[in-house]
Amino acid sequence: MNMYDKFSVISVLGCAFILGTSLAIPHAAKAEINRTDVYELKRPIILTKENQGEQIHVPAGQFVSVHLAENPTTGYRWTMIDNNAGMPVLAEHFYSSQTTDGPVGKPGIHTFQFKATTPGIVKLQFKQWREWEGDSSVLDTFYVWLHIDK
């Protein structure tokens, strides 16, 4: 066997190896895709003031996000009233619409994130108020009824 023949055999074997491993990748990927312990990511249901008083059906395990307009520099803040065990608060955050330019104190969005855990009916309710002034300072309210299905 001359040098050219050896090079040809090595080239063919190398190509066969590369081709063989590349054909195996889709099977490994398919096995990864068909895993039963991987859960589908669901987008949260987003509720705003436009949903005031609505009754909304939500599957258990679903994430819900409430977005309410707020300007905290006025002292008025959104607060949840009577937290329900069926909808624990996962996170709460204020997102300012303010850019680096302009005056301080621009409004933004106060968000509350929840996860529907226990089947049943839950009333999510909030009030916008100055906490130090008490209930007489309530400026606005918001509520929705969530029907958490199994």
UniProtKB/TrEMBL annotation:
Domain annotation Proteinase inhibitor I42 chagasin: ranges: 58-143
Keyword Membrane: no
Signal peptide region: 1-24
SUPFAM superfamilies associated with the record: ICP-like
InterPro entries, per the entry: Chagasin-like_sf, Cys_protease_inhibitor_I42, Prot_inh_I42_chagasin
Coiled-coil annotated spans: none
Presence of keyword Signal: yes
Keyword line: Protease inhibitor, Signal, Thiol protease inhibitor
A GO molecular function held by the record: cysteine-type endopeptidase inhibitor activity
Protein name as catalogued: Proteinase inhibitor I42 chagasin domain-containing protein
Biological source species: Bacillus cereus VD154
